[in-house]
Structures are given as structure tokens and as C-alpha cells.
Amino acid sequence: MNRFVERFTSSIVSVLGCHDRVIFHGHLPFGGDEHLNRFVDYGLNMKRKDFLPFLEPLSQRLVDHAQALAKQADVPYRYFEKKPDKEKLIHQLLLKKPCDDGLIAVLCCMEHCRTVKLLHGNQRPQLAFRCRPQRVLYFYFQDADFGLIHVRVQTMFPFTCQIYVNGHDWLARQMLKRRLGFVQADNAFRQLDDPDQAQKLADQFSKLDWVKILDRLVQPVNPLLQEPWLGQRSYRWVINQAEFSTDLLFRSRAALAELYPQLLQHALVNLSAEDILKFLGRRLHPRFDGEVLSDLKKGRHPGARVKHRMKNNWLKMYDKFSLILRIETVINQPREFKVRRRRTRQGKSQMLWCPMNKGVANFYHYHAVARSSNERYLQALATVAVPCATRKQLDALHQPARFGKRRRRALNTLSAQEQHLFQAVLRGDHRLNGFRNTDVACCLFPTPPKTLQQHRRRTAHVSRKLQLLRAHGLIARIRNSYRYKITPKGEALMNAAVFVRYKAFPKELKAVA
Known about the structure:
The protein has 15 helices and 19 strands. It has helices spanning 3-7, 33-43, 51-73, 86-96, 167-177, 195-202, 210-218, 253-269, 273-279, 363-381, 391-397, 416-425, 437-444, 452-471, 488-512, and strands at 12-27, 77-80, 102-119, 126-143, 147-154, 161-166, 182-185, 188-192, 236-250, 292-297, 305-310, 313-320, 324-331, 338-345, 348-355, 401-403, 406-408, 475-477, 484-486. The strands form five sheets. Strands 2-3-4-5-6-1-9-13-12-11-10 form an eleven-stranded mixed β-sheet, sandwiched between helices. The protein has a two-stranded antiparallel ribbon with strand order 7-8. It has a two-stranded antiparallel ribbon with strand order 14-15. Helix 12 (416-425) packs across helix 13 and helix 13 packs across helix 14 (452-471). It is globular, with a radius of gyration of 28 Å.
């Protein structure tokens, strides 16, 4: 059981980890500019200047096909020069005319997308991929398996496709088929009669035959896939964005309302950039080229949220309906994560850590990485400084303690010296495998030792500090190793001390002034 759930188990009804929004992109197998020019020269046997006029009627054919589909299904077809609020428009249409299965509407918008442009060349014109304004078609469906989805198709070559699905809607359809009771609100569940069975179903989402599913969804809206000049080319599917959420359903709004502000403050005050990298499966490296930011927004609807961003991937925490605490990992750049894959090195097949790819075949990797990220984040939140330490425990820290046969001094929990030691021990990268003397020394002494004698003095100094924490029961040694771990008592007391010094105490002083 996750330590956060274990600590607040009296307030939590159920926990569900499920994919939320997933956006797939389909690309026809045309590479860069050189590949395109060779295809026109030798595949189509066409002059390059004639390629764009050749594409224009194909673009209109896609638009005519979309209008025919809308007319056949008796649904609206609308054209917009600027981007509308598509979600709002679709929900308004569903309120007027509910639909359980089939096409809801077709929207045509002008957008800048990657397409082909004819450029001057040294000896002959060159075709190149550039971003240009073009018509883009959005087909909104109620699918029997996935609920509300949309398929987006560019009307100009290379006819890139995008498909949006929601894992919570898919899970709702699966539970309906199995007659499992639930109450769904938006993209969350406010009640689950069988949380264990719901979790088992949610785990199957990333294991579906996505290539077959996505081909089935795109074929009715793109008749050009059957064109002979394409040479039976089909879409190559990648995951452009994937969200995985862990929802903790609380027993009452009052229980979450009491805890949630403290979680927000804890996430901002106690979680450093190194912690965020650790949650996302990374370590801080001197060659890391990017930003790690934490952002808190309180003036948003429906409630406050905190976002931790690492390049273009992020972790979010927010509440839904003041009843569900949601931890969400959003992956936009999968190559920032490492996964185990089989590779051939020097003629030998080995399992190596490699960057995660965007292909749909890696969807199960997305699931594992995001789920682990949420779990590590919840583990860190388990140490939130709520009133859990008794007065007796606090008083004991300010009294001398025994370590074996030796006496150790009392702790001054609010002093700068002790706070520096607490922060060195509480680092996020120590939570999985513990920490060593060297790890704490690197935090207490930013510059490396210049001599061997200085290194030994520092090691002895840190050993005395660790013995002091062990004497007071804040850390414990991991059996058969030279590593240490933080005890539940240490997590509660040290995090509470850091919170009081850096958050509560300055606030109280400001109120007095």
C-alpha cells in the first residue's frame, strides 16, 4: 500500500490509477524534403511544379466527403476562420441533441499545419515541408468503446491525422458492460462499487491493439488512403501526449478541505528541483539542459492546483469537485525517460537503458513510467506536516538521548544548523534506496574536499551527525548495508520543523509586525 494512502486510510474511500487524455498522431511515411522530392520525381513521375496543383482537388475532396458524412448523419457541419471553443460547442450540441453512438458534428477550421511548399532551387524547384494555413477537419464521435472522441485530419498533404481518446470514458464503458456500479462526473468517478475490479480494467487500457483501433477510427473520415498514388501507405501511429492520473476519493469534502491546503504548501516548500526530477525518473546531472519549475495557481476554477514542470513533461496535483485528490503525470517528451530495452552492442544482445520512444508499441512503457511517477510523488506527500507529532515527541527531541553506551546532545529543531541537516536527509533522491554518508556530505559541503585529510574530517563530521539523528530515532540504518532510511517519526518531525521555520514562523512574525 502506498504510504500516503496508509497514513490517511481513514479518510480515503478508494484509489484509481487510470489514463486520462491521450492524443495519438498518425503520419504517412514520408520523411524529409529529400524523400518527398524523390517520391514526386520517381514515384509519381511528375514535375515538381505540378505537385501542388495535383493536391488541390484532393483537399477539396476531403472537405466534400466531410460534408457528405455530416449530411448523411443529419449533424451540423460548421466552418470557422478562427479557432472556436470546440469542446464547449460540442457539449452544447449534445445537450440539444443527445447522442450515444455515431457522428456528433464536423468542424472545419483554418490552422497553421505542416504541409508542402514549392521553393526556388539551384537547378530546379524544390519541394519542402513548411507550416502554412490550411483547412483542418474535426470529426466528433460518440464511440461504442471510447465514448466521446475526435478525429482531426489535415486537408493538405501529408494529411496528418490526430485522434483524441479518454481513458476514463473507456473505463466507464467497460464497467457498464460488466454491470459494475459507478457514478461518473466529467472525467472522474465519484463512486466505485468495486474499486479493485475497476483498477484491473483500467490497467488493460495501455495493452489494447492500438494500431488496429486507430486505423478503424481514421478510415471512414479519410477516403484518400485508398488512392493508388499513395502506394497502399498507411499511417504510422505515435503518442503525442499521454496523461495518467491517480485519483484518491475522500469520504467527505471536509476531510479533503482540511488536508489539501497543507499538501499545496508542502509541495511548494519541501519539494526541490532534485525531488521533481527524481519523481519523473531523472537525476540532476551537470549536463542537464532544461528548467524545472513549480507553479501554484489558486484563482482557477474549480480549485487550486500545483504543477511541477520538467522541460515539456509535468506533474500536477489538484482537486476535483472538492472530493477527489488527483495526481497526474503528463508526458509530452518521452525521450526524457529511460526504459529497459533489448539492444545489440558489439554483436551481443543486451538489456540496456534507452530513451523511451513515441510509438504506440511503447504505450505500456508510458503506463509504467507515469504510474511510478505518481506513486513517488504520493510517497513524498505522505510526510506532509499535519498535526501528528505529540507534545511528548517534540519535548524528547530537545533532551539528550542515548546511542548505545554514549550520550548524544539535544536537538535545536529550528536552528539553521539542524535545518540544514534535516534538508540534506529529506532530499527526494534518498527516498527509494536510502542515503549514505557521502550523499549527506555532498549536501552539507557544496565544494569537494581538496585533500584526503579534509575528506576524512568531513566523513567523521557527517558520521557524528547521523549518529545524532539515529539516537533520536529520526533515521535508521538499513540492514546489511551502509545506507540509512528515514523513520516515520523522522519524516513527521523533521518535515514539521522545516515547515514551521520557513512557512509558519515567518507568517506569524508578519502578522505580529
